[in-house]
Write a sequence for this structure.
């Protein structure tokens, strides 16, 4: 009996130290390029709309970056303000248009750690993660995707392809059998290889090309996005 108890004790000690080592490895992976932090609040998770057969997924730097409260969007390239003067990401803005037009549920993709405030430092982190093949940890996944038949994806282009957090997210969900519309936001790369990349992660989904939204003037794409939604809803 004593022997069994001490074996069990040893086993649980080993499991605990593995978990600790994994956590330390995560921290090392994250702080290797820049000293950045876990997200301060609970992840936003699913924001229900009126149509629970449609899901809008997006990733934006806003919501995944520790911007100061009083951030001045004018001095930060690529940031926008909403009608209330709050920061809004380009992909987030396009996701809002799509959610309003379709009535779909919305799920923001969030990483467990924020990216640095400075655009240049974010690039350093992203290049490091690409080179070392480090997957950003995702803060939360939707609980149940089975009820959705249509998914709208709005993803920023980072390093000429869909951003790494989106890839980490897509690797761990299953969109089989669903129609998936892919939109990008970008500052020159357009759609890049987004459609193929999403199809590679989701071989059993019907992946369709949406539109590329330029992040320096996203509002100019709104009509086109709404027309696109209208054309596929006919
Ligand atoms: C790390 C990083 C890499 C980027 N690489 C590219 C790129 O290769 N091509 C491009 O057109 N834009 C690139 N961008 C610009 C982003 O696409 C742009 O900031 C984004 O679409 C804005 O959307 P958001 O506000 O929702 O994050 C990059 C941005 C970051 C932060």
């Amino acid at each position: 009996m004593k022997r069994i108890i001490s074996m069990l004790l040893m086993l649980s000690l080993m499991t605990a130290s593995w978990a600790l080592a994994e956590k330390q490895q995560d921290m090392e992976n994250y702080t290797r390029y820049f000293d950045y932090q876990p997200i301060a609040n609970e992840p936003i998770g699913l924001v229900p709309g009126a149509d629970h057969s449609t899901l809008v997924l997006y990733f934006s730097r806003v919501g995944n970056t520790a911007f100061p409260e009083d951030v001045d969007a004018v001095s930060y390239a690529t940031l926008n303000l909403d009608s209330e003067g709050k920061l809004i990401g380009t992909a987030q803005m396009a996701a809002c248009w799509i959610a309003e037009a379709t009535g779909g549920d919305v799920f923001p993709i969030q990483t467990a750690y924020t990216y640095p405030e400075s655009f240049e430092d974010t690039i350093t982190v992203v290049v490091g993660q690409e080179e070392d093949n480090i997957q950003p940890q995702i803060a939360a996944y939707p609980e149940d995707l089975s009820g959705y038949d249509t998914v709208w994806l709005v993803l920023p282009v980072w390093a000429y392809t869909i951003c790494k957090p989106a890839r980490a997210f897509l690797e761990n969900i299953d969109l089989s059998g669903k129609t998936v519309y892919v939109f990008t936001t970008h500052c020159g790369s357009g759609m890049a290889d987004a459609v193929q990349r999403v199809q590679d992660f989701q071989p059993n989904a019907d992946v369709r090309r949406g539109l590329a939204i330029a992040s320096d003037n996203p509002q100019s794409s709104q009509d086109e996005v709404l027309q696109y939604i209208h054309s596929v809803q006919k």
